[in-house]
């Protein structure tokens, strides 16, 4: 019988400590939903009371299979657990589980907290007991445990025993400053178990300051710990936390873990982990790292000629796991064969049938490659990919021609002496031989100006003659901008998500050194995609 | 007496297998020089004969302290080592050392090479013996050793013994497909030593396919191997090789390695490792990853308020090593997680002294929190944070007032019937009571239009009267845009990185529903920050 390992995600709390990361409530809900879908056991949502976003998240969070967990700290000295307002705010989030961080390193107790060692033990005991009495599953995060154990093992263990005896379900050994190497982690976890904290109540929380957080977590499991805390993509303070996106495939697929342990993550869910990893980058507006273990775009890329030819004979020669098992794909730059069958599959998904060996396939592949080199991203912008393919196949209708556009943004004082901004766009198109001029500004209902792209979008969608009624239910739902490398110089890549009244959602891409040009290109593709779907019925 | 560990760098060979990486000869020379300056023992320069760049590199390479090493493969079956032209090309590079890769996995010998197991052993023996006879230090890279040992340990060991008996100085166990976890690596290395290959002739070569390449290398050292192969920044095929930039500080600074082992890297050289890591990113034209262990810009960044206040009392509380030891710096960003102590620390770094308990601290914190809630991001945009704080403290000079601006983008056909885009901006400022109108377009030297933000930046920087000469050495180096939640609605956040002739680099932020407004706000902050630093001397 495999033993159960528990996975605890702290992307929404420790992950938010990453420099430059600040999740909105909506983003937290999106990430929590993805974690829940994976089969993570605990989702730590934030520290209620510490900032308004975290409190709002717990108020709005939908029910989940995962145990939603609020983070906080042990009560302060000189007041009871019942009267500690910080602790009360944590409990008021009404989550089934609560994780409290507390000190276990004598130096920190005396230097940072400035209280006696006995007071700190009592803070741990009373806080855990209070949460348990409120019916919550209670976790104790033993901050700086490894440094504390090195400095004063008796005291560090006394803190853990206080949490254990007060009823903590999990006692989590935290390598808070990331300085403990895997060998040391394994040794200390074994010592803790020998000292009377059972392994099935022990968790591990590592940081990547020596680039060994994943290995440190594995060493703790080998030594007997049964809960792993980590984050998606290794997000987290400084160098990040242990990366669950690397750990989960290792635990499910690799010796000696596969078979020996089981987690809440099914093989079906595992096949979505690449998608989950990229969703997080999307939320953060980051380019996914190609080199990421298991899920990176290069993780199964075989550049060396020797490797690529061996892969064709037997993939197991250079792949330690099947890329499909983690939802990733093999990539062989040299292999036109693999490229073409891949391409045909993508075209079929877009409803375009092309016979194997059709010379258009090679032309489309070349075009995609050339344009991706200029900065386009067709993986994301499926609708633009489809428009490109249709053009190569001679299946693209023009619908209308854009003759010119002009957009202006002006900021100045109004008659009340307040600075105001106004954007205005003019778009000139030719439809059925007729020239149509449209002008729009971009003031919204609150009187604030939404900017030049909004004005352009409105002007473009204002009068497309006989196509107008088809695009009337279309609207812009997201707009992403990235500076990227186009050949030798920096260009702007704009990705626009559009939606319509039929519930469809599609993405298009534009690239230019000029952000307005890039945006207009993506807007045009979006309108033409919609027309290519719906205008046929009218024609 | 500490034992000597040897470091072998393969950035120029295995690192070049990274998707998208192709070094020029000049780049290879630059990287080799940096490696040599660090005190690396062996520099593997490439595979002479396999491509023209690698051959040219060996021809042109300057003398080095490191042992320059040419990579190649064992001779093919059916010819003698003396008559193998591939092997001859490797020897013709005239390097003091040669590293030959050969098969040790029976499956690969029979499937990929299609020769008998005995022929393969003879290829290893004869090739190593030939190089040794030519007076070269010879290394044998045992490809797929860990998979081979798992499948057929006797055969895998027989291959190693052939290399040992033929006089190979180093026998390197390669985990070619990256699938072996640290625990497995340690176990196999111990078995190999017990089977008669001495540890001081054993090297380890790992890949990061499970995000454990660094830990795998350390496990091999703990088991007795004495050479580590890796690359700068973990460059390499698929997920990369073991990252020497993480391994070197760990070996020099961390228990149980520091003191027990010594390498060719001095403490002085270690203090340049951050610089070496960033030099490689510079060669690759990549933005350095902030989260890198030891050398990343976030490696010593302390965002959580609790951590920052402890750091002020004693840096060792949240730092496992001194950032200066690796040439990196502590950084305490502003964000809505932060407390007053964090804030004071941050202000001090900006040269602003505020007494503890000063009521301005609370006002600044409130303002930062409110603005971050609107979408601003002050932990990235330090210069904007500083301008905000100076304004609250009444220390902000106005310098000039912006009366209005206007920017337009027009796309239309030119006289040659080609679609072209032109951006134009007008900025009106008032300086010392005098109104100044400036107009700019944004055509670059190649004739392509760089867009409205570029035009605005040029117009704003065109005539600032007596401040003009101060901002003349300023330029825009990066521009990041994201759509974020500002209160209840989506807004655009723009972060601009600027640089000047004194080598300073600073970041500013602007937020608005209108991307042009947001950009202009960030541009203004950038100019004012520069003036607040340099204009005082003139006043």
UniProtKB/TrEMBL annotation, chains A, B:
SUPFAM superfamilies: 2-isopropylmalate synthase LeuA, allosteric (dimerisation) domain (SSF110921), Aldolase (SSF51569). Signal peptide: none annotated. The lineage of its organism: Bacteria, Pseudomonadati, Pseudomonadota, Alphaproteobacteria, Rhodobacterales. Residues 5-271 form the Pyruvate carboxyltransferase domain. Its EC number is 2.3.3.21. Gene3D superfamilies: 1.10.238.260, 3.30.160.270, Aldolase class I (3.20.20.70). This is Citramalate synthase. It catalyses: pyruvate + acetyl-CoA + H2O = (3R)-citramalate + CoA + H(+). Pathway: Amino-acid biosynthesis; L-isoleucine biosynthesis; 2-oxobutanoate from pyruvate: step 1/3. Keywords: Amino-acid biosynthesis, Branched-chain amino acid biosynthesis, Isoleucine biosynthesis, Transferase. Pfam families: HCS_D2 (PF22617), HMGL-like (PF00682), LeuA_dimer (PF08502). It comes from Roseivivax sediminis. GO terms for biological process: isoleucine biosynthetic process; L-leucine biosynthetic process. GO terms for molecular function: (R)-citramalate synthase activity; 2-isopropylmalate synthase activity. SMART domains: LeuA_dimer. Belongs to the alpha-IPM synthase/homocitrate synthase family.
